[in-house]
Write a structure and sequence with these properties.
This protein is α+β, with helices and mostly antiparallel strands. 40% of the residues lie in helices and 20% in strands. The chain starts with a strand and ends with a helix.
Length: 403
């Protein structure tokens, strides 16, 4: 019987780095077990996994993409229509009308605010220009839209513009008529669902929340915890200068810039849960595609690093341990193996693995063992069952979805 849940546990060590910053530029942190830990947010991790463009990247999977942007309507509706010879203002009028219908009152409120003179921008581009002419077809917030959804909306705009003979006013009237029955539009968009991933792969994996009634909400099938160090935070202020080469050549001393930033090091515990049934459902019932997703996920979770200050810290590391559990019981984190901060004296990885193994044994003793387990790890056998290479572990994980 296929797994109901897959749990991916990782231990990954990073030397001097600044993996995820807060609004003040310091490393994110979180109190846990009486000690402050360095933290990598789940949003940061998911972002790097989604956009990774190397071997086993999610973008290599044969599935429609999700577009995460405020200007998706500009890029995938306005620009294609303009390339076909449509006047850009007419195309934008059509796109803005559809934004109002698809996203409801929120989009209409933003347009009204712009008409009252309140500056609404995307980057440095105004959403509204003089005389209420649309400058950028943008949504009120970053939205997640599937390429099939955008293609369908572009078809509607194309047909309305053709029927209007290029008149912006007539386009609006035609679209008003077309959108009188919002239930029909909703039905047509959701009819894209069977096997077509109307919201795209990214939404199928990590979910999307929508405020309008036209698009379908998608619950995340992959749940990602914030990664915390297994020990207390280890941090250092990095004082640095930037030398002005031309001034130095003239014999002057000093620097062109002086500053300091925070660097940390640490061994992070990471935790990911795959709701297999939810994933298969989000992928239109395609279990083979779900197997491809988890196969790629094992690779990218283990090898794709987040990190600010890449140019000055090279924050790249592979996991020391990747432990995967497959079963049908409710998942549970193993983070509590590190309520008592792991000793950094000696070998911190060895100490962390021992704490993890002890905690897992205690869970098995109290609740019983209901999961199949396999792992990949650096070094000698560490007491976990079914040790294999990462490639074999990824294949084993795929098999848990397909069986």
């Amino acid at each position: 019987m296929p797994a109901r849940f897959l749990q991916i546990h990782t231990l990954t060590n990073y030397p001097a780095s600044l993996l995820n910053r807060d609004d003040a530029g310091f490393a994110k942190r979180m109190p846990f077990g009486g000690a402050v830990r360095t933290r990598i947010s789940s949003q940061c991790l998911k972002r790097h996994w989604r956009v990774f463009d190397g071997d086993h990247g999610l973008n290599a999977i044969a599935a429609p993409e999700s577009v995460r942007s405020r200007v998706a309507f500009e890029r995938f509706i306005v620009d294609p229509l303009v390339s076909e010879g449509v006047d850009r203002n007419v195309a934008r009028t059509a796109a803005q009308k559809m934004i109002g219908v698809v996203f409801g009152g929120e989009a209409k409120q933003e347009k009204a605010a712009a008409k009252k003179g309140k500056k609404q921008t995307v980057g440095d581009q105004p959403i509204q220009g003089e005389n209420d002419e649309v400058s950028v077809a943008a949504t009120p917030q970053v939205t997640v839209l599937g390429k099939p959804e955008l293609d369908y909306l572009c078809q509607i705009a194309r047909a309305a513009i053709a029927a209007s003979q290029g008149s912006g006013d007539r386009v609006e009237r035609l679209l008003d008529e077309r959108f009188k029955n919002e239930k029909e539009l909703k039905k047509n968009i959701q009819a894209l669902r069977p096997g077509s991933l109307e919201a795209g792969l990214g939404a199928a994996l990590f979910g999307r929340m929508v405020t309008g009634d036209i698009l379908a909400r998608t619950d995340a099938a992959i749940h990602v915890a914030h990664a915390l160090t297994v020990h207390g935070q280890m941090t250092e202020s990095d004082y640095f200068t930037a030398i002005d080469d031309l001034v130095r050549e003239g014999g002057e001393q000093g620097s062109g810039h002086i500053n300091a930033s925070e660097l940390t090091s640490g061994l992070f515990y990471g935790y990911v849960v795959v709701d297999v049934d939810g994933l298969v459902n989000n992928l239109g019932g395609d279990r083979t595609l779900a197997g491809d997703v988890v196969h790629s996920l094992v690779h990218i979770v283990s090898k794709v690093s987040p990190g600010a200050k890449r140019g000055s810290t090279a924050p790249y590391a592979y996991s020391h341990l990747v432990l995967i559990e497959s079963g049908r019981a409710q998942p549970r984190t193993l983070q509590n193996a590190f309520i008592e901060p792991v000793r950094t004296a000696g070998h911190v990885v060895t100490n962390a693995v021992a704490a993890l193994r002890e905690h897992l044994s205690a869970l098995d003793e109290m609740y019983g063992k209901s999961e199949a387990r396999a792992h990949a790890a650096l070094g000698a056998d560490n007491g976990f069952e079914a040790k294999m290479t990462l490639a074999d572990l990824a294949s084993w994980t795929r098999s848990q979805v397909l069986e």
